[in-house]
Amino acid sequence: MTPGAGAIPVPSARWPRRVRFLRVSAIGLSLRVDIVSLAITLMLLVITAVVGIRSLGASTTRTPGLGFVEVVEVLTGRIGGAPANHVATWLPVVVTAVLGGASLALSGAIFQTITRNPLGSPDIIGFTTGANTGALVAMLVFGLGSGGATVGALTGCLLTAVAVYFLGMRGGTGNFRFIIVGIGVSAMLLSFNGYLVATADVQNAGAAAAWGMGNLRDLTMADTIPVFVTLAVLVPALMAVAPRMRMFELGTDSARSKGVDTGRTQILLLVIGVGFAAATTAIAGPIAFVALVAPQVAARITPSAGIPLVTSAAVGATLLVSSEVVARTILAPQTQLPVGVVTTSLGGVYLLFLLLAQSRKARP
User: Looking at residues 244-270, what average pLDDT do you find?
Assistant: First the structure.
């Protein structure tokens, strides 16, 4: 309809100048790129690389570790021998920390987006606790080894997700009921986990308790394969679902009014988010608070309206690789802490800050 002569012209919506569109005509791909968020993400990746290289050279004994340049020379094949063996020992740990941190952060970003709540994280709503329960049942009830613990963790995480979803789905995952049900299920599983550890023999109980703290030590490169495979499968799946996931930032009703099949999309996102959380938990145990903290940090350091997925993954990688080197070296050579101890300490402070901020908003 042609506007009349007296009509007031309405300016067309424009993207901010920091947003650019990248089109690849050959494959019909179009991407919206936020230049500021991209710069912040690249900076985080550089920090992750620097910390990772420093971690590869760190020593946990009284002998001095390797310098930054020496580690780079090992990685580029210029020197071998004892320095190369030192780097090879810690390479699986650092690789798992980088990939696992990104995987946990993506899981947290998914659940915090569809629940529209910063507490909607897999470690708050019980998914990682369920993975711990599955691993404990495999190790302490059925007497299976580490391979059985991995399968048990995956099974426990999936079963917990199914239980929380169907018990809390009334009103949709954006309803606070979903989170409350998850916290309740997590509390029950924690009690059950305590019972399993308390009734096991001392040796098995010690091993199970150490695994339950989240530990990246003693990993091999073969242990990193499940995380590689998970990311290779789930990242493209997340890219395909991401446009529909963005609709949940406005609420379930709004997403439904835009033509989104909210029920099917929630189930798809639930499976993808559980897969990201289970991949790391299955090989390293439940590493708390990375999935909770990383998406919120990413949302605060970028100008994006919602939770940015790529920046969240970068923050998660930076956070976990930094926590790992601190846990490994802070009390060395006397002892090496599980990385879960450091992430729990940092996450506890953040959770206290988050609850105080939420209470201030709730005041009249």
Answer: 83
